[in-house]
Amino acid sequence: MTGFRLGYVPGVTPAKWSRMWTERLPRIPLELVQVAAAEAPDLVRRAELDAVLLRLPIDRTGLHAIPLYVEQTVVVVPKDHVVTAAEEITVDDLADELILHPLDDVLDWPHPPGRLIADRPARTADAVELVAMGTGLLVVPQSLARLHHRKDLTYRPLTGVPESQVALSWPEAETGELVEHLIGIVRGRTVNSSRGPALPKPKAKPRPRPAPQQKPRRRR
Q1: What is the pLDDT of residues 8-17, one digit of tens each?
Q2: pTM over 0.70
Q3: Distance between CA atoms of 172 and 180, rounded to whole angstroms?
Q4: Mind listing the pLDDT tens digit for each residue in 121-139?
Q5: Does 194 have pLDDT greater than 60?
Q6: Is 74 in a helix, a strand, or coil?
Q7: Do 62 and 139 touch, CB atoms closer than 8 A?
Q8: Left, alpha or beta for 34 (phi > 0: left; psi -120 to 50: alpha)?
């Protein structure tokens, strides 16, 4: 049977939803494909993926997108940095700090706070390496800070900045039954939810016919 290809951008963890899919649709394989954030919408438009978990905002031309949850924004710093003394950081706390702004930044803002370093790293992973070298600090969604975790780095929640919103996206013309099942899973609907499509029920086994009763013989 044909499977379903679900893409996801770095930092998003679809494992729980994948397990639920397997429990509900065991005969339809779910293939998880990690994709670059910048490529995710076009991969769905070209039908190389059936759906994708990505971060908003995106160009929604030809696509549906339903928001799922919002990620905390954090600042990644060396473990011995002065800001680690606080449990939470504000934009003002970073006013004099050198800040890295990678080209694949997923936060929707004109520029990060602080003093931006003109030379922008190509990837978030490269920026994390530069933080470890003491070049500057980095502002990212918490999931990306966890993805690129290093023993010599830590992070703190940052307030007063945009947050990342994770969404499920799929082609406008392809809202079929499998997509409806996936929407139900990521939105936490139960198997018996009336809002989702009905799952195929197993065929009932035929009941055995009762043995014909014999009429009692008359005594002569």
Answers
A1: 999 999 999 9
A2: yes
A3: 13
A4: 999 999 999 999 999 999 9
A5: no
A6: strand
A7: no
A8: beta
| Of 163, 131, 173, nearest in space to 56 by CA | 163
Span 134-166, pLDDT tens digits: 999 999 999 999 999 999 999 999 999 999 999
- Bridge-based pairing of strands 4-8 and 51-56 is parallel
Which residues lie closer than 8 Å to 43 by C-beta, 6 or more apart? 7, 35, 49, 52
Question: Residue 105 has which token pair?
Answer: 């930044």
- Type of residue numbered 1: M
Determine which helix (DSSP H) or strand (DSSP E) holds 165, and give its type and residue range.
Answer: strand 164-171
| Angle, vertex CA 45, rays to CA 142 and CA 55, nearest 5 | 10
The first and second tokens of residue 150, run together, are 């290093």
Instruction: At 24, list the tokens.
Output: 């509900």
**How many other β-carbons are positioned within 10 Å of the β-carbon of residue 137?**
26
**204 pLDDT above the threshold of 50:** no
Q: What phi and psi, each to the nearest 5 degrees, are found at residue 175?
A: -85, 75
